Amino acid sequence: MRLIAIMGRFEFAPHDIDAAITAAAAMASQTRRESGCLSYTFGVDIEQPECLILSELWLDGAALEAHFETAHMAAFRLQLRKLRVVEVKASRFAISDMRDMFPGNASAAANAT
Questions:
Q1: 19, 80, 39, 5: CA torsion to nearest 10
Q2: Options 3.30.70.100, 3.20.20.140, 3.20.20.70, 3.40.50.300; which CATH number does 3-96 get?
Q3: Whether 58 contacts 111, CB under 8 Å
Q4: pLDDT digits (tens, 9 = 90+) for 49-63
């Protein structure tokens, strides 16, 4: 079994970014409750505020495939169709090894150079 990560980028017309953020927040909240979802976050790109960055981590491919069939995924897709989406890019990664970079030391992350 391999973990599955998704990295994505959604670019919206500037007048649609607030609606996109609202839709993404609801999607993330519901998705994080799914079985097999280890992490699911959207964030605003600090250099391009009309872009949302998506980061997902799944227990396995089956969990990700089940996610695609959820009612909240269908609702999210419907909401996106109402917005002007300029571009969407996403990549899927199979992870064979993952380790904590700062085990037991949160302050090390803050002081890393």
A1: -140
A2: 3.30.70.100
A3: no
A4: 999 999 999 999 999
